[in-house]
Records
---
Amino acid sequence: MATLQPTPPPLDDDGTVGGLGILPWTAITLVGVYAGLRFGIPWLAVLVGVSANPAPVPKFAMAIYMLCAGLGALVYVSSEDTRWRAFLTPIVQAFVVPHGGGRARRLLPLAIIPLLVAWITWGQVMPSTQSPPEGRIQHPGLPEQFAKLENPFGVLKGPERNAIEREGVILYQKNCRPCHGTKGTGDGPLARGLRLQPVDFTDPGTIATVVEQYPFWRIQKGGIGLPNVATPWNSAMPAWEDEIEPDAIWRIIMAEHGIAGTEPRKPEGSER
Amino acid sequence: MPRFITLLSGLALGLGLAGIAPGRASGQWLEVRVGDRPILDTAMVEAGRAVYEERCWFCHGEDGDGDGPVAPYLWPRPRDFLMASFKLRTTASGELPLDEDLYRTITRGIPGTSMPEWGSTLTEEERWQVIAYIKSFAADLFEDEVFDPYQQIVERGDPPRGGAEGILESGRRVFEEADCWECHGAAARGEGEKGPELTDDSDFPIWPTNLTRGWKFRGGNSVEDVYMRITTGLDGTPMPSYSETLSEEERWQVAQYVASLDPEGGGRNTEVVISALRVDGELPTELDDPAWEGAPEVSIPLTGQATFAPRWQVPAVTDISVQVLYNADEVALRLAWDDRLADTLAADSARAAKEGWSADDTYPVLYRDGFRARGFFPDAVEVMIPLRHGVSRVLPHMVYGSSGQPVDLWRWEADLQYDPDHPQPVTELRAGGTQHPPEAHALESQLATGAGDWQDGRWTVIIRRPLSTDHGAREVQLESGQIVPIAFHVWDGGNGETGLRMALSSWYFVYLREPIPLTSYFVVLLSVVIACVFQLGLVVWMRSRARRGLLLEYGIGSSKMSE
């Protein structure tokens, strides 16, 4: 808006680092976001140990995230006049190159857009081997009738409590250890072959965040007792109600907390 | 703001790069870092007792005799500390282990067994304490200077460097000449002819290690670790020390060879979708038809069926390799898995008659709680597909579905394969939960066919079935282009596996991939043409603006344009 000047504006005014210019930085950012969505997030679950397999981000989510990233970048570069001009200058110059300076150098920038379009359409049109999305709610709500239950051993202290826990440890190590592991870390000998990994009790997001009636429900009703939002079909968790008495289930829950070094969450309000 | 963008892109790039890094490393035994060994005095023993009675007793027993209340559920069985005989050592054959050896084992755990790693749970001090306590179970041996293990440490130089090809070839020759194959088998899958007779020092049967499954090696599968096992032997098992019989160079060679047998290191499978290739013309009927070479192969991990009683905690088969081909009418699966013995009722009865035992004494001592079935059972494999499937449908339960969501099964059995009176070895069955065993389809609905063969400790089986049938919704109907849920079940009869005592997989998917239609290529081409035309228009427009001097602010003056 100021007076027209025949010299190009100084590119370092756009506030970018390394003298790269705003356009390359925008491109790098978008590529970085794409790489993060494509590889980072799927493998994060594996690195953190939540899942054995990388879980790809669904296509529609990728599209939404990339759209947001693109719009965000556009808002950012166009929010200031000098920056916007610095952003557009290399593009305009690529489109209106004066003659000379090698044919390849002139054509290369012009080839970027058609190639990008080809790549995106290819991804849309060509069949991919992505598995159907398997969204899953890990902690569905506790059914009312279980919330009312009470741990008959909850009041015990000292040696009496230790004796109950010890019985629970034997029951745990016989029945639960194959999947949930000797240490409760969800990596027992049978865990390797399961796509839905057994719960890691030492993870602060599992039994430590729920009241002790919750694991009672899960042990008694098992995977097949889950609502559909929690993908009961993938769960190898047995429904133990016909094989383990309620008292023994409470013992197991107390042992689980001892093994994992956690405490059950206290219900809201001391008494219900 | 730009700083923020820089930071964000850096973070995103970092995440992307992290994605290339492999998952959790399994770690090798000799690589465990051992700090300075403290003095293991009586105070340490007492402290170790507390650790032991919290973490170890239920398997290894309160008295350290390897017979805790959980021991009958474990295979291999927990170590008996009274015998003071340890597999993983750096001391000569038959000698006691170093404290550092016990430290490595406790820290890393023992893959392929129930012994977990304790490095992330117990502090270093607690680990030394529990070692002091474990040694107190055999104090008379450990305190006797005559048996001092620190006088018995084996020498270990560095592995020879140089042409890997040559070393592997020499290693293979040593493997042959030292008769390793008698137990470990010519194909190194542990299928050697001596295998079935082997017992450990407590007279429990023991199988030779399948050397192609490096991730299950008790003491790690690095060249150094394998060298150490060959040199020291695995005390308590039939694996002897070769320190006298083989030269150091030969032991390094055979260690290199053994370590090379599992190049992937048992990496976890991350594929969830098995791509089925469409072929023109006939599907292959032969197990080794070259047409199979082109079909993508996915290795699917299996686990014991532990959801419904009778549960199965010790499955013999841990992986199955799957390939799928299809044409306009039929689908064909090629399945392959390691199994040391081909079990059929006839073969097992013959073996029992020769060795003088009956079906009733199979596994008499191992499982006092009796959860292993007694008797002879054939090897078998089964493919499970939901009777009704579709993208929007929820899946049936991973163990045989339910009455409301039945599954269809295509089962191949070794007995039927070798029965001359039986037309073919595959049966189609229907299951709807585990209350009742799966039921075979009526004869007119038996459409699946197949063939299988066992060679060098590995079964290879083909199962074929028409994509669609005449019976509509009463049978599984498949179509080109579909993504079909699929799961796999394997029985090793010789391991007492039958019925629900089986190895199974979670749900996976077969994608009946269609050849890419020409229109797809055309659409891509069209999009490129449109983009080019659009860009050309932009160029023309901008150049005209430039000529009119409207682009001065972008560093383009009209004087510079020659057009």
Note: Residues 522-560 of chain B form one domain.
---
Amino acid sequence: MSDYIRFFLIDDDADDVAIFKEAAMEANPALEIINAGNGHEALKILKHTPGNYPNVIFLDLNMPRMGGKECLAELKKDTALRNIPVIVYTTSSQSKDIEEAMLKGAICFITKPTSIKELKHILSTISKHVNGNLEKTLRNLSNTSSAFIVC
Amino acid sequence: MILIVDDKKENLFSLKTLLQLNLYDVDTAVSGEEALKKILKTEYELIILDVQMPGMDGYEVAENITGYSKSKDIPIIFLSAVNIDKRFITKGYTSGGVDYITKPFDPDLLLLKIKTFARLYRQTKELNDIKHNLEQKVEERTAELIEANKELEASNTELQQYAFIASHDLQEPLRKIITFSQIVKERFMENTDASQYINRIIASSERMRTLINDLLSYSRLATDPDFVTASLNIVIRGAITDLELVIKEKKATINVDNLPTIEMIPDQIRQVFQNIISNAIKFAKPGAAPEMKIWSDFTKEKSAESKAAEKGVYCRIYIADNGIGFNEQYLDKIFTMFQRLHGRSEYQGTGIGLSIVKKIIEKHNGLVTAKSRENEGTTFILVLPVSQAVKPSAVLY
């Protein structure tokens, strides 16, 4: 088990990537963030680094070339990649997006929070439990956080 | 023009002369067959018909004339020297004649009759034309209205979708403004003078976010979810859970009676309670903890005033608070979008919450009103049908 934790943020929005990195840095210094701007690029990166996978994937839905839903389906099709937990991380809070994401195998659906404090709290909590019971951690988070989290 | 039908040329001639002397346009036919042909081509205002003719007799001709839609209203006067018996006269009338004159006849009387019948025919025809025109116009206008209505519905739907998309997209940059301002404040401005300006930026942005959120919920109401049978108790509990934080923070107490099960769109009714309860908390008296009481009764009419009746088809829900209240002369205002009775610095709010309440209740075919006096609290009254005309698709809880 490595001593650093790696989150893979698949999101094309540079502002959101900056916010995510900022929050991650303060949430947990051992947290490394890598980023891809669309599903296509993300799959390429993952397939080039076999065995060295991120602990959690944060996946935006609305992206050019390959959007989040398609990317999620591709991830779950791949026997090597399907075990990486995927959290959908998006601006949407619409039920049809939530249902589709959960159906396709996401473990959690988080609407990008407005408060950076909230995001820090989410990332710090997840990073502390990546090797434990992540689903339970997320369920607890959805009950305690003011951010919109569906598990 | 008047048509005279007679097989005897001398009869035709004398009658034609008489009429022409009195300035009538006259046409003639020597047989029933010829008469029918002419009637199809020309429009006559009166037909004088001899009864006894070789080939087709007068009765047959008359029956044919009244059979055509074009000629059915032309008055027919029978003229006969031979068939003057009562039964012939009766037959004349039943075959479509308006009069039956026997020879010899008084020319002055005949002229008077011709004049009367011709005038009646013209008037009837004019009336029919007017009626026809009117019907056509009504049809045209109806078609135009239906078309305009369709266009209106289409543009309405478009507008609602537009509002939804616009408000959703508006939230995006705002979320970033807030987040980056927070970062700047925490990283670079702790305890500096500039931080208070950043605080103002954040507060303003937050207010705008609430506004957009409210607009978003308002435009979401346009979609048409189904009615289901659900318990008001559970719906209210959901609304209270959503407001838990602020209820705790303001030490508010909410006392809810046992409420009935009705047909509704639960998410929307939950929003109604959420808006009214958070309104009550928002407009609490300074220094006093908000207290609310929710109860219900049934009534036979869709009215906030009518007598309670156990078997009524309307459920009436009361939500009473101990807040600052308002002057009832502003009752209409509180349900209108963006109308605020108080300055923003005194009380928060976007002025959309109660307009959402009103829209939802109207969608449920109910009504909402409030009773209040300044400084004496407010009681909101919702009147909702127990069953909806559109049958519910499910029984939820």
Note: The interface with chain A takes residues 168, 171-172, 175-176, 178-180, 182-183, 186, 206, 209, 245 of chain B (CB under 8 Å).
---
Amino acid sequence: MRRPFKTLYEQDIRFWRQPSARWWYGLLLIALCAIPLISGEFYVGELAGLFIFAIAGVGLMLLTGYTGLVSLGHSAFLGIGAYTEAILLARGVPFYITLPASALVTGFAGVAIGIPTLRMSGLYLAIATLSFGSIVGTVLQKWETVTGGFDGLPVKAPYLFGVKLDGPEGVYYMSLLVLLFVIWLALNVLRSPLGRAFVAIRDSEVSAQSMGINLALYKTISFGLSAAITGLAGGLFAHYVRHLAPDAFDVLLSIQLVTIVFVGGLGSLHGAIFGAMFMRLLPQSIALIRDDLPNWLGRMPGLEPSIFGLILVLCIMYEPMGINGRWMKVKAYFKNFPMHKASAFRRQKSYAKSERLR
Amino acid sequence: MDDAARLLQLVVNGAASGCIYGLIAFGFVLIYKATEMVNFAQGDIMMLGAFVAYSFIHQFGLNYWVGFGLAILVTALFGFLLDAIVLRRVIGQPQFAVVMLTLGLAFIFRAGAGLAWTYDSVGFNTPFTNKTVNLGGLVLGQDNVSILVGTLVLCGVLYLFFSRTRLGVAMQAASQNQLAAYYMGIPVRRIFSLIWAISAGVAAVAAVLLAPVSMIDVNMGFLGIKAFAAAVLGGFGSIPGAVIGGVIVGVVEQLSGYFLPPGFQDVTSNIVLLAVLILRPEGLFGKTIRKRV
């Protein structure tokens, strides 16, 4: 892997890794701002969905990729954020309050599930968050006086300073703005002592603790922050779908969110974006090729989830670093073009690591 | 009297569905103890077992018991190959990678079953369907009783297998200490694949026992989520604990459906699971184990 030779501490915590990155990301931003002017409504809507999943992916990446805590219940946070947004808007609260409020409410929900699960790690945490997710999903279905039950909940169009932000373009620009904010926030968190503590906890809880990191505090912060960001995504998701149905926030959505993080590449914000691209573009590309496939395959109802499953399996078996890892390898190949070494990315061979003492 | 009989019936029904959770949890625990992997696809292996049994018994018209045996064998073979071909390659990767891997496999199994069989709900006739047994005035469905008896017999057989046979003892040794087992000449890798085979076979037994009570469809694997509650309640490292935990979860679920407002029954197992994890993370039968640095 290409590791820049760092000689200064400032180099390590700089916001832009390389000065040239500024220009590339600036160009990308200009292109993204221009897309709704030249492209059809459908693609703008799809891209808005991609941004929303990227926001949720960044939120989950902070928790799973950087703090090493796995959550199979993030659909619950997305749902709490979405319903908070819809309910507050229906009560006549202005939009510039509802969106931060949905982040805040979800953040508190994250802290609430974070505190009791502090002592758990790995597997137990995954199971606990899985059941938290399905409890919240059931509550969204059954608490009919507030959530409307199976009839769902219509979401009012948001107004910002008198401008109606409706339709795909409104959601597009809102999501883009929030995504930029979230990435900026995550980058800054990661170069602050807070983010350093997260990474230390991920790499080894025991050594983090012996360096004076308060595990309980930082894990709770990580949960709350991750949930709040996912709640923001949920608030935008409410405007994206415009009519909330409780069965959208089920276990499968949680698995999709974790797949974003895994297939994108654990431990990198690029990975969250790549994963969201994968997650949103795959159904579209399947829909495109579906008609060309043989009939028994093209008409198969479970085609999409099975391809998700297959890619997830292949990714874990052959490319545990995800899309981002593959991208780094391709980049490194061209960077040292004639001098490419096959062993440069060889995984360190490890044997079954026991997580228990016996 | 009427109320007491009703309660007792609920308890039996709960215990029967709890046995199914327990048998799925048994599969989790067996694999977890040996390989420290958690098989989130266990419920879906059960679903495959159910479809295989459906093929043998309904489509090929075989005798119930013959079909039962063949379904166990085929599913066990499937479990063996699954470990030998896929899971063995991810040994040494972080535990959560395996969780995601099995979740991905579960998606594939569901789609594969839908493709190979059907997406509709199916069922087959068993000797226990729609019959009742009268135990001293208490009328119970034979289907539920057959689940209870079948679970007891299976547990007995597996207990004898693990404590009395060479292979069973070798399996215990391999799960206690891989390296030492290697030094003793135990083929650990093949043993692990056999352990996967056994837990797939147990899942098939659960599936066939469940058949008179519930329809077979591709989504029946979501029972696996309830089985987690059973495994956690039992301590996630204790095989009898898993079965007993399953029975407790099943009974609590039935009783909460009776006493609490509707809607609570669906989340009972989840609430039990969270409560156990928060209050007593080592489960009812587990031992506290510290993590190695």
Note: The mean pLDDT of chain A is 83.
